[in-house]
């Protein structure tokens, strides 16, 4: 098959991890006879330096004309000054909204042999394989009003946690459908005990569950969810939630795997129907880690696994996606970057880790 990918390495360690993502992509091309055209573009701080904005209109168009985006990371102390509008991650939010990428999938897998990397006891995390489905274009991130103002001599601020029915329905649908393709368990996460959005969310989830009799639906409060993720991570399969809770809980969940360097992310415009390409924005869940730039020491796995998600969701190449995941699982048995280093493994840098996974593929 043929595909076009807009590649935005971005700032800090972004270019280093994206190079490893591209390496695995080239290996997939060769092994399975596909062809991916890569179109590089500037995003984040590098784009601010060159053009004054996090992403230019032209580059937005380049993304629109591609099947999907592979992204490194954006930001750094040079650009991220609180209060400025064009802070480097603004481009990321723009892309989410512009392309309607309402579903953010963040899988967390504790690979066999890596239980010892987790901050939790190995016996607790063994076998963890869950996926956080975060609503990505609504809620407190985008709801109006969103502003600061002065009244009675004091400063006020508001972010409206606004959800319309269609937004809740479509993200819950992603949750139910994903659960159906996995272990058939869905945790619907909200604060129905306090918020109106939570009450509506819970009502809609209950109504929709009638169409999914094969799925076990659990309604869970967001606060309790954070607790259960630490107590019993293996009890989770698919978790679905609003934007702000998803931002927080996906970070917590990704830590179970031992390092932010292990967590991939797919932001997509819904799950693809069979034979259909869905636009997506694929990135590691970690940031630009400015202190590590140019050191060839960070973990490329999050980006490599993001490429697997790209093949799965945008290009419908499930076999190839699984092959990358299996190659990664094999590679970590023997080789590790510093963030997940354990006794008895060979310590390697970013490029070398990419090489080992590519060889395993
Ligand atoms: C994430 C990040 C972003 C978010 C930031 C960088 C705007 O934390 O992708 O989770 O808050 O969504
Ligand atoms: Mg976040």
The number of helical elements comes to: 12
- The quaternary organization reads as single chain
Instruction: Give the spatial strand order of the biggest sheet.
Output: 2-1-3-12-11-4-5-10-8-9
The CATH superfamily name of the domain at 1-107 and 260-361 is Isopropylmalate Dehydrogenase
Descriptive overview:
The chain has 361 residues and is of the alpha/beta class. The chain has a domain at 1-107 and 260-361: Isopropylmalate Dehydrogenase. 38% of the residues lie in helices and 21% in strands. The protein is built from twelve helices and 14 strands. The protein has helices at residues 14-32, 45-51, 57-64, 90-98, 122-125, 165-180, 196-209, 222-231, 243-255, 301-313, 318-331, 350-360; strands at 2-10, 35-40, 68-73, 103-109, 129-135, 146-151, 154-159, 185-190, 216-221, 238-241, 264-268, 280-284, 335-336, 346-347. It has a ten-stranded mixed β-sheet, sandwiched between helices. Strands 6-7 form a two-stranded antiparallel sheet. A two-stranded parallel sheet has the order 13-14. Helix 1 links the parallel strand 1 and strand 2. The chain is globular. The two termini are 19 Å apart. The model has no long low-confidence stretch (mean pLDDT 96). Bound molecules: 3-isopropylmalic acid and magnesium ion (MG).
């Amino acid at each position: 098959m043929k595909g076009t990918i807009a590649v935005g390495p971005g700032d800090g360690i972004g270019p280093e991890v994206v190079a490893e993502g591209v390496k695995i992509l080239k290996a997939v091309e060769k092994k399975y006879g596909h062809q991916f055209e890569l179109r590089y573009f500037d995003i984040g701080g590098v784009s601010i330096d060159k053009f004054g904005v996090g992403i230019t209109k032209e580059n937005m168009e380049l993304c629109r004309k591609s099947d999907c985006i592979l992204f490194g990371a954006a930001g750094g102390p040079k650009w991220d000054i609180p209060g400025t509008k064009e802070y480097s991650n603004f481009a990321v939010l723009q892309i989410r909204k512009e392309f309607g990428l309402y579903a953010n999938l963040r899988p967390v897998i504790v690979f066999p042999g890596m239980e010892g990397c987790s901050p939790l006891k190995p016996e607790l995390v063994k076998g963890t394989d869950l996926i956080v489905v975060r609503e990505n274009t609504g809620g407190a991130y985008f709801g109006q009003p969103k502003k600061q103002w002065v009244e009675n001599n004091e400063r006020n601020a508001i972010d409206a946690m606004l959800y319309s029915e269609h937004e809740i329905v479509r993200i819950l649908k992603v949750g139910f459908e994903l659960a159906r393709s996995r272990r058939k368990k869905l945790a619907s996460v909200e604060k129905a005990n306090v918020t109106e959005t939570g009450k509506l969310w819970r009502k809609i989830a209950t109504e929709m569950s009638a169409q999914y009799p094969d799925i076990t639906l659990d309604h869970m409060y967001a606060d309790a969810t954070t607790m259960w993720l630490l107590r019993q991570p293996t009890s989770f399969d698919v978790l679905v939630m609003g934007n702000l809770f998803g931002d927080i809980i996906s970070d917590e969940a990704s830590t179970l795997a031992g390092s932010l360097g292990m967590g991939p992310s797919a932001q997509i415009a819904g799950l693809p129907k069979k034979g259909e390409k869905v636009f997506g924005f694929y990135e590691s869940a970690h940031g630009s880690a400015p202190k590590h730039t140019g050191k060839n020491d960070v973990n490329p796995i999050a980006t490599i696994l993001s490429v697997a998600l790209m093949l799965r969701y945008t290009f419908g190449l499930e076999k190839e996606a699984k092959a990358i995941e299996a190659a990664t699982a094999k590679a970590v048995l023997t080789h590790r970057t510093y963030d997940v280093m354990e006794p008895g493994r060979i310590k390697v840098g970013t490029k070398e880790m990419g090489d080992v996974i590519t060889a395993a593929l």
